[in-house]
UniProtKB/TrEMBL annotation:
Keywords: Heme, Hydrogen peroxide, Iron, Metal-binding, Oxidoreductase, Peroxidase
The species this protein was found in: Massilia violaceinigra
Active site per UniProt: 128, 201
Domain of life: Bacteria
Protein name: Catalase
Amino acid sequence: GQQLAAAMPFNPNKPAEYGDASRTPQPGATAEPSTPAATGSTSTETIASSKLGAGVPPVGENPTVGPLDRVRVDGGGQRLTTNQGVPIADNQHSLKIGLRGPTAMEDFILREKITHFDHERIPERVVHARGSAAHGYFESYQDLSAVTRASLFAQPGKRTPVFTRFSTVAGERGSSDTVRDVRGFAVKFYTDEGNWDLVGNNMPVFFIQDAMKFPDLVHSVKPEPHHAMPQASSAHDTFWDFVSLMPESTHMLLWQMSDRAIPRSYRTMQGFGVHTFRLVNAAGASVFCKFHWTPLQGTHSLVWDEAAKLVGADPDYHRRDLWEAIDSGNFPEYELALQIFTEEQAESFAFDVLDPTKIVPEELVPLTPVGKMVLNRNPDNFFAETEQVAFCTAHIVPGIDFSNDPLLQGRIHSYLDTQISRLGGPNFHEIPVNSPVAQVHNNQRDGMHRQAIHRGRVNYEPNSLAGGCPFQAGMKSGFTSFPQTISEDKVRGNPELFADHYSQARLFFNSQSPVEQAHIAAAFRFELTRVQTPAVRERVLATLANVNPVLAGSVAGGLGMDVPAPLPLATDRPLHEYEPSPALSLLSRPGETGIRTRKVAVLVANGVDGAMVRAIYSSLLEDGAVPRVVSSQLGKVKTSDGATLDVEITLEAGPSVLYDAVVVPDGEAAITILSRDAHAQDFVREQYRHCKPILVVGAGAALLKHAGVPPALPDGSADPALIGTEGGALAPALAAFKTALAGHRSFARETD
Ligand code: HDE
């Protein structure tokens, strides 16, 4: 690659024209930042500044910075120009015939500006429109060449750049983050053998078994077509009408009604490839595989009342959380684990591994950790990167292959197809965030928005005029499909085991803690309360009767209905009895990051004990938490020791739902003021209702009383997350508070 770059006759003033050469990856790894030698230029700065009129781009340590430097633009110190590079003298006034006259048709500057603006929007994704993303890298733990020749798993410590986008599914691009929904978890690996997109969700199963049903599913959950309501919500008739007629969705519905559908953060949810995939090694031998991402931050969710209020308090709650965590150096990390099993093993399972409504329980096939992903850089530009990134399940690399899961098979077509209309043509792979770090050479030509300037007269293969180049890579290094033997009739239909719709729904429900089970029942109740058609409610209850009598009874009770007879089963086979799988409970993965990045409000007013606030604040900071001084109004408060404190945010702008915990410090005068403020009362009431840790010092107890919250006892002896200090010292109370904060919530007190 370096030789190629050196040999190329190129205009040194426009080095980025030879993008392919400047993109040449370092031999053996994609992880190194680009060096001047590899870019074919004297310095990376020249590339950005000469072609794009930019200043010097900051070249960070993140290996993904390199590949995108060639297109980074920064107007710092530059004059304003048109898109043709013509300097603009006046960007405030259109060209008029006299100061009070009409605008001249010839005002090409105005017309270019307005025309561009008129076309600023592109269609949003038909699903997963609302999302947030980050750059980072994947680091392999070990050499997996025994099972796959995929180059990113070739050796321990090997780093591959990634771009990862999280999303909700149903809502439009501007909808809220904390709605009840499945979350997308899509990772683009820029491997040195081409891009691999692992386009997963935060739940390991799906609603339907066959791609044929996807448009119907999506139509049913999207806003109803006559009045375009409701936004970003499954709680309406058409969705429940569809799924109640689709018993295969039962397992997924339980996941969707669980707290998984209201994650605390994109940093605290798992990701799953959902389908069974294949791994293929260099000898051509293949095993089946399921992909699991597990956050090192642990798996944590919101509670429903909080999620609903967050829609108003901060519609960007998850976007902001991800951005701030990365911005502050708290890089989210996720471990990738594989479930590897052979085809023979798969045949012995009680379910079909090609059925995407089924998991492979971890008790049956344990997880093998193979590496971790670190997200360490926010995008420079939301549209250019997060919006224009194009994930395709068809993007796989040598060593990874598809299974015959009929849902996956349909997806292989859908993603490429949708990008063509969403991104305006077949050259979306040239958009910087989509372009591989591996070199691209083929005879595909032309099309809308072509960026590459292909040289020479040969655009076909085989050829002799270009020495046969670019040439076929051959079986050894090129991608080859696993040669599965198939000899069957062409049919429309499902394998027999697909008809078991309830065994794993039962497994999931039975594996949840009592709190999680209660939340699932409450979510069904809420959604079905919004459903207006009694027959639809009834059919859902008849479905749930096949899952668990307590669940069905609880939901029916909540709707003021009786549990109807269960829906008839679609199979004569007896349902499979699974042992509960503790790994399916969110509570089984508390995480390793303690109180890092947890947000804590410290409520203050004039007369607060300033020394105490400072002590608590710095102690929390020291452990990586994010304390905030919150009060009724901005400015400074006078502390009891005659000093002042800066208020960081008001109770109005920073209500309870934005914080993981609250501290009410001592100071009688301050508590008298706060007790009169409805915002402060709501604040502690909601912290209590949402099961969050509360630390109350001295006079602070009066605020709880005013708000109707039970008293906080020293060291939390009644409720381990409701901690007071009456008569006691601050230090042990603060320690108990931190323990409670690391434990997230105290569900024992829940009364919703
Ligand atoms: Fe998708 N899905 N999907 N999906 N999906 C899209 O592609 C589709 C499915 C998933 O952050 C679309 O670029 C079909 C399962 C994610 O950009 C579209 C079927 C899973 C994202 C599409 C499915 C997913 C999408 C819309 C059934 C989890 C967002 C815009 C056969 C394993 C990626 C786009 C991003 C996006 C089609 C089912 C995950 C239309 C036809 C199952 C995370 O192509």
